[in-house]
Design brief:
By secondary structure, the chain is mostly helical. The protein has helices at residues 25-45, 52-64, 69-76, 80-92, 114-134, 142-154; strands at residues 67-68, 96-101, 104-112. It has a three-stranded antiparallel beta sheet with strand order 1-3-2.
Length: 161
Amino acid sequence: MTADAPRRTTASHATDRPGDASPFALGLLLRRAHWHAASVMTEALRPLGIELRHFAVLIELVNRGATVQRDLAAATGSDKAGIMRVVDDLERKGLVVRKAVPGDRRARAVEITPQGLELFEAAHVAAEPLAERLVAELGPGEPERLTDLLTRFAHPSGGKA
């Protein structure tokens, strides 16, 4: 620091600790909450032989039906190479198939298989007790309130996005 430069003071430092008044606090708390939830859900998926990135694609396929890879990449926040690796993994496991898209020689639609649907359902069964553990520190009605708040935060236009 030079003698001429004004000395900066910081009233608040970005942390994710209770009481942080930093403008970064909410984002940091959401990141920590995501890590915590992801680690719990990873534990549920591990015995099924898939990871969260695989499950994210299965969710999109269940919700949308057959979907081209570029749309899967956009929906899951992945890049082209990343989504190709995930779809390759799922295809090797027999959970999805790629099919030609009529009218577009280059595009391939990804479709969930019956085996993929079975695994999707099994994942929900496996996650149930872990999901309960995830919110064990919350009081009565708080898990539902948290879900409502996060839904409104993640979908500010009422889920129309």
